Structures are given as C-alpha cells and as structure tokens.
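Here's my example:
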Amino acid sequence: MSTIIFRHSWHGGETMDGERSINLPELIAVGTRERRSVVVSPELTVGHFVPGMPQVYATPMMIMLMELAAGAAIGPLLPPGYVSVGMEVNVRHLAATAVGRLVHATAKVVEVTDKTVLFEVEAFDGDRLIGEGTHRRGLVNADAFKKRFNAS
C-alpha cells in the first residue's frame, strides 16, 4: 500500500542532547520486545484526516502504535532522566483495517549501538500482517531536551 521513510540525525559524536554518552549495549539486549494494541476508531482513520478518503486505519496511526511499542520496550531499561525518541522509520503499510478491529503492534530490538536502538516492527489485524519495517530510536536526557525546545 504505502512506504514511509523518515530520518532524523544530529551532528557530532555525542548524544542528541550533548550530554555524556551512555553505554546502550550494556543496558538493552537484542531480542527485547514489547507489544501495544488499539481498537481502530473513526479518529484513527485516514478519512478522519483527509476528506473523501475511506474510514480505514491511517498509516501514521499504525506507525505511532509501532513507535509506542518500541519506546515501551526500552523505556524501563534507560537510566533515570533519559527517554528515547524516534529518529528513523522505514515501514510498509500492507493492508487496510476497518473501524472496530483490534490492531496489535510489536517491536523487537535487533541492534543496539552506542547511540541508537534499531527495532523490527510489525502490525497485525488479528493474525493478518498489515504493516512491517524498522524503527530506530535515540537516547536523550529529558530535561536537557525539554530546555532546548522550551517545552514542559
């Protein structure tokens, strides 16, 4: 159906927030996994966002569910004060899903570097694969990141 690739990068050999490096391979094991689920509501459909389009699960909403699963997989393993942020998505949306269906997204760690974690992500409508791809997350100091963007 559709393929979306998004990459975010930063400069230099430090973490995204300019803080000391954290040894991610010591914290996060390859194979760590998590799953998140959602019932497709009208607000999660492409028709909700684009007039005249069908009321089927929107690709960005599927990707968000995959990102939520990935973040949840590693969140508890991160040092206090650190969070992970999405920085690359390479996902194919393979099949439409109707309102009322239960969608499950899974994220499995397949690579851990000094700065990032790469996930294999999938989404299912029941047993039917509706999306697949990869997602990369980077580590940031939450307070420093918020200050950088004057966010709360």
